[in-house]
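Researcher: Re-running this chain for the archive, since the previous output was lost when a drive failed. Same request as before.
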Amino acid sequence: MKGKWKNKQIKKIAADVLFLLLACCVGAFATVGVMLPNGLTIGGLTGIVRIVQTYIPVDFSLLYYGGSLLILIISAVFLGLKEVRKILFLTILYPAVLFVFETLDVQLLEESDVLLAAIFCGVFSGIASGLAFWRGYVFGGTDAIAKILRKKLFPQYSLSKLLLAIDGIVIILSAFVFGRNIALYALITQVIISRMADMVIYGFEMKIVKLEMITVQAEAISQYIMEDIGRGVSSTEIRGEYTKHAHRQLNVMCSPRESILIKRKAAELDPKALITVVPVETVWGTGEGFTDIEKEQ
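Model: Regenerated structure tokens:
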């Protein structure tokens, strides 16, 4: 039994490394082969490094490495080593892959086309983010900054809102450095990244999912959903007909990205939790991300 578990873990680690390497290659190509040659930018740490690079003429990959390591250290101080483990691997791997792609000097477009570059930068970056997130990892960057801000300054706001605000600030700052047109192209890219990441994780045409979970850690997971994710959660008492034991089932409506975060937390607190994710075509309500029922009249 122990040998089977060990083999399963080895296979999982091997799959993680393979998909994360693919994610890094796709993301590096989006940055080095599409974004930089066309003078574009985006939000997040990549956008911050683009701004810094205009004042410090150093290779993009080296600046990105410095920014990633700085965020890693800050995360260790404010969030603890547990959070650092989630971003450590990509913090080391992704800048290294960026450096290789910079050396190769690859480009997607034969001639400069800013609109096409903005679209395909978003497509490739979204695929990279989706692959990493699907495997339970994140690129060290503004995600960590958003978590720190929420923990220390803005506990009343959800992580998605803080992340949106940070990306918005970076794009606004880029307007002063690169011009308003480039900032607007960055906005297009950012929207495409978000959509593509969701498509990679859950497929097309899925904006909201219903997550049902049977767990012995209902209280802790409910608190995480409400306080960290910023979603409402309900629970029902159910009974297994085979064992006749009573259990609590948690029910939550959320985005595909948020469901991955909840799944990771559940796996951490209760590895034996039973989780079902069901696609939802439309949700009417007043909650964040839902369609206002009055507007559908």
